[in-house]
């Protein structure tokens, strides 16, 4: 049994993390073997996030006055929250991928930049490519016209050199 001071410390810590997070996802890790739960926590940490498991009443108290207040009010059953401090799609993807192996793990609800998300929105968010892939795609798209222009100029240069070579050869044969 937790003392009042321990509960206050938990509530304060959870509230601080919710305030710092760009996204909060409601999920469940209860019933997951401890090794698998540690793997999931590690994947979320690598995505610059955190997973918190505590009592529903403590979640509700911690969420008071935050963007996640409505989502964490009146929770029933086993719950956990996953917090994304930087890359929200990466954290959602870590939870979603873990759910493919274990049906207990689901993305139930979420808050992203203060906007409420339902399960279908969270699945779409989890299926987005990683930030690095998206940046590479944007960069490739920006470079495509320039690369095409350079290839065209090079083709013109090659054709010009080829035609100058043919003109020079034809001039040599007429002199003989």
Strand order of the largest sheet: 2-3-1-4-5
Rg, nearest Å: 28 Å
Strand content: 5-15%
- Structural class label: alpha+beta
Unreliable spans are none
Helix share, percent:
55-70%
Q: What sequence of helices (H) and strands (E) makes up the elements?
A: HEHEHEHEEHH
Biggest pleated-sheet summary? 5 strands, antiparallel
Mean pLDDT over the full residue set:
87
Distance between the termini: 108 Å
Number of helical runs?
6
Shape descriptor? elongated
Total strands: 5
Task: List key phrases describing it.
elongated; 5 strands; 6 helices; 60% helix; alpha+beta
Structure, described:
The protein is of the alpha+beta class and about 180 residues long. It contains 6 helices and 5 strands, in the order H-E-H-E-H-E-H-E-E-H-H. It has helices at about 5-20, 35-45, 55-65, 90-100, 120-125, 130-175, and strands at about 25, 50, 80-85, 110, 115. The protein has a 5-stranded antiparallel sheet, with helices on both faces. The protein is elongated. The model has no long low-confidence stretch (mean pLDDT about 85).
């Amino acid at each position: 049994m937790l003392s009042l001071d321990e509960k206050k410390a938990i509530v304060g810590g959870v509230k601080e993390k919710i305030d710092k997070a760009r996204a909060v996802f409601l999920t469940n890790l209860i019933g997951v073997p401890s090794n698998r739960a540690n793997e999931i926590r590690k994947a979320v940490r690598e995505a610059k996030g955190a997973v918190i498991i505590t009592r529903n009443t403590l979640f509700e108290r911690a969420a008071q006055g935050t963007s996640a207040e409505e989502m964490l009010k009146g929770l029933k059953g086993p719950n956990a929250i996953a917090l994304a401090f930087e890359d929200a799609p990466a954290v959602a993807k870590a939870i979603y991928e873990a759910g493919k192996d274990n049906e207990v793990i689901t993305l139930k609800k979420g808050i992203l930049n203060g906007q409420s998300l339902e399960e279908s929105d969270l699945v779409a968010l989890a299926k987005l490519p990683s930030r690095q892939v998206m940046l590479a795609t944007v960069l490739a798209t920006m470079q495509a016209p320039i690369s095409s222009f350079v290839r065209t100029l090079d083709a013109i240069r090659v054709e010009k050199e080829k035609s100058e070579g043919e003109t020079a050869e034809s001039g040599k044969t007429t002199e003989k």
